[in-house]
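Our consortium's second objective concerns turning raw sequence data into structural hypotheses that experimental partners can test. To show how far this objective has progressed, the report includes one record in full. It was chosen at random from the queue rather than selected for favorable results. The single chain below, 210 residues long, was entered without modification.
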Amino acid sequence: MTDVLGPKPPRSRARLWVATLLLLVYAGFVALVTLWPNPSDLEFGGIADRVLNVLYRFGVPESFGFDELEFTANIGMFVPLGFFLGLALPRRGWWLALFLVPGYSGFIEFTQATALESRVSSILDVFANTTGGYIGLLFAMTMRAMIYARDRRIIARAIWERDAEIIRARQHPLPQQRVTQREPDPATRIFEQRPAWRDPQDAPTERLPF
C-alpha cells in the first residue's frame, strides 16, 4: 500500500510549537507578576485606582471595589493561560488541563503563603484563576473543533470532486483517434504474402517502383 501511495506525509507541528512557546512565555509572565517579592514595585495599587475610576465613569456601581476588581483580574489573567494550554495539548489529552490549571494556581498560592511575606494567599484566588483557565480552555477546544470540522468538509469535498471526475471520465470517454490504414507498397505486399508456392519460378512477379 505504501508503495502505491508513496511516503506518508509528515504531520504539521506548527500549532504545537507555537502554542507551546506562547504557553511557556505567558506562564512565565504570570509567575513573574504573582511571585514578585514586593508587589508595590509593580504599582498595582495605582493601576487599580485608575481602572476603578474609569469603570465608575461608565456607570459601574461604586460597590464594585478593589476586591471585586482583583477577583475579576485573576479570572482574566488565567484565560490566555487556559487557551494556550488547550492548543498545546493533544486532542485526546485536553482533560489534563482540568488538573494543570488549578495545580498551577495552587502552586502560586502555596509559594505566596510559604515564601513571600509581602504576599497574601487565598483559596478564592485559586477559584478565580481556575475559572479563568477553564474559560480559556473552552475557547481553545471550541476553536479546534470548528477547524477540525472545516478541514473534514474540505477533504470530503476534494474526494467527492475526484470521484465525480473519475465517474464522468468513465461514462463519457474521450473519442479515440481513427487510425488510417495505408495501402502497403508493392514490395511489402509481395514479401508478406503467405507463400503457397514452393518453386521460386512459381512466385508472383510485380514491377517495383524503383
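The partners drew two points from this record. The chain has seven helices and no strands. Residues 12-167 form one domain. Both points have been shared with the crystallography group to help prioritize constructs.
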